[in-house]
Design a protein that fits this description.
Helix content is about 50%, strand content about 10%. It has about 240 residues and is an alpha/beta fold. The chain has one domain (about 10-240): Rossmann fold (3-Layer(aba) Sandwich), CATH 3.40.50.300. It has a five-stranded parallel beta sheet with strand order 2-3-1-4-5, sandwiched between helices. Helix 3 (about 60-70) runs antiparallel to helix 4 (about 80-105), helix 5 (about 115-125) packs antiparallel against helix 6 and helix 5 packs across helix 8. The longest helix has 25 residues, at about 80-105. The two termini are about 20 Å apart. About 40% of the residues are buried. The structure holds thymidine-5'-phosphate. Thymidine-5'-phosphate binds near residues 28, 56, 86 and 117.
């Protein structure tokens, strides 16, 4: 995009994104980590101070919880337990990293957040309203200023990661659990869930602009990384107008 069409100058990005918390979310393989990193690099090159984080995880305790959630068979884990564990990791992340960084005027860029619980655990049978209530307990006033959903067809996401759900979904009786011990750590516990589960995740994410209590913008994540980055860069400026 020519500079004359830009909503913000480079300086505006640095000034206006101080103490802002931006989440990059989307289905598996949506490119959220790549886009978070590229956004952060560009902002830092302009002089912005950026803190990156990842949910679940991002702290020592959060990484232990992440390992419980993603490296094990969760077949017998109640979806409420699963939801609480995601929230527990997030509570630690907010207290230890996000809040102090925002208070210091930094821009916090995070992979996933409560928006992911709204999509994945709701797809696994948990109630959306409850997720949002629990989210409020977990993060108190530290909600994202903006959540970007990188929207991609599920099949493209899995093609990009080179991983596959373990079941096609047709013959499964318990769609909420993985139903097996993970024999391949490359495919995590959530990715191992059936395609139907992931389709529901995507559909729920697409409804978040109406249901989530903070601003959510959908970005088409199916193009190449450069094109998606340019779109993200402009969408962020539009979101804070
Ligand atoms: P990722 O770090 O590669 O995105 O993997 C995290 C996985 O955990 C991903 O499949 C999405 C899933 N997840 C949930 O099910 N609920 C959540 O609240 C979060 C943050 C992630």
């Amino acid at each position: 995009m020519p500079q004359s069409d830009a909503i913000w100058t480079d300086k505006d990005y640095v000034e206006n994104l101080r103490s802002k918390f931006i989440v990059f979310d989307g289905p598996d393989g949506s490119g959220k980590s790549t886009q978070r990193e590229r956004f952060g690099e560009r902002l830092e090159a302009l002089g912005g101070e950026v803190v990156h984080c990842k949910d679940p995880g991002g702290t020592d305790f959060g990484n232990m919880i992440r390992s419980i959630l993603l490296d094990h068979d969760l077949t017998n884990m109640d979806v409420r337990c699963e939801t609480f564990l995601f929230m527990a990791s997030r509570a630690q992340l907010v207290g230890e990293k996000v809040k102090p960084a925002l208070e210091a005027g930094k821009t916090v860029l995070c992979d996933r957040f409560i928006s992911s619980t709204c999509a994945y655990q709701v797809a696994a049978g948990y109630d959306m309203k409850r997720v949002l209530e629990l989210g409020q307990y977990a993060v108190e006033d530290v909600w994202p200023d903006l959540t970007l959903i990188l929207d991609v067809p599920i099949e493209l996401g899995f093609e990009r990661t080179g991983r596959q759900p373990k079941h096609a979904g047709k013959n499964r009786s318990r769609h909420a659990g993985q139903g097996m011990l993970l024999d391949d750590v490359q495919t995590d516990a959530m990715e191992a869930r059936p395609l139907d589960f992931h389709r529901k995740v995507r559909e729920t994410m697409r409804t978040l602009p109406e249901t989530y209590p903070r601003k959510v913008m959908i970005v088409d994540g199916s193009g190449d990384a450069d094109a998606v980055h340019e779109e993200v860069w402009q969408v962020v400026a539009r979101a804070f107008q």
